[in-house]
Amino acid sequence: MIRCLFRAVWNGEGSPRSFFRAQEREHSLADAMERLQIANLSLFADQEQLFLYYECMDTPVLPESLLAETGERLAEWPGGAPGRRWVPMTDIFHYQHPVSNSQWARVHKERTPYGRIALLKPEQTASYVYYHYQYQEEKPGDGDKYGMIGMHENVLFFYSELPETITPVLYEGRLKTSLKPENWAKVMEPHFIKWEGAPVGQDIWRKLMLVLEVRCPAERRGAQHA
């Protein structure tokens, strides 16, 4: 099981929601996911910013193979291969990591993907990553099993699912220390650039709009044959 986070910028006419929610496009995406062994895809938006999460059952698959129809509707990102539209976000924190496809299978049939974004002060990047690696390896399983944070440039994307899934981990963390700050929120606050004019409670982590969610039978087959 390979977890993937990507970021893109919408550059087309209309809204991402109307484009991706077209019935024929959803069917095409579901077929691609079935063929490529992809499960649990979620697409979020914040105005023109797009954030993508999905899970590869066996081998890595790029978004271009799943969402080929987006084409030039997405802005091109410099600094990589010509025509690059999706940029990977680095996993800098997760409450758990997959041990096997069967261990990773969902228990909540009625669940909702949930996404948030935050802006990190560039000079605080090392500190933020340090604290989160410490937390991740000292207290694995301390939150939603599927919760993780991806980073690209100074943008943070937090993916999770509601209701939360809290289960024991099947592995030990890599650190035997107990240094995670007890006053976590207070220690974290100076790391962020706050959003101006944000709704109450969203001045640091702003909620994303869920554009699309597609599940695939590949997850069930993976659970059966893992």
Any key phrases for this structure?
226 residues, alpha+beta, six-stranded antiparallel β-sheet, five-stranded antiparallel β-sheet, 11 strands, disordered C terminus
Description:
With 226 residues, the protein is an alpha+beta fold. Helices cover 24% and strands 28% of the residues. It has seven helices and eleven strands. It has helices spanning 16-20, 23-36, 63-66, 101-104, 125-138, 184-188, 218-225, and strands spanning 2-9, 38-46, 49-56, 87-88, 90-94, 112-120, 148-152, 155-162, 192-193, 206-207, 209-214. Strands 5, 6, 7, 8, 9 and 10 form a six-stranded antiparallel beta sheet that branches. Strands 4-1-3-2-11 form a five-stranded antiparallel beta sheet. Strand 7 (148-152) and strand 8 form a beta hairpin. The longest helix has 14 residues, at 23-36. The radius of gyration is 18 Å and the shape is globular.
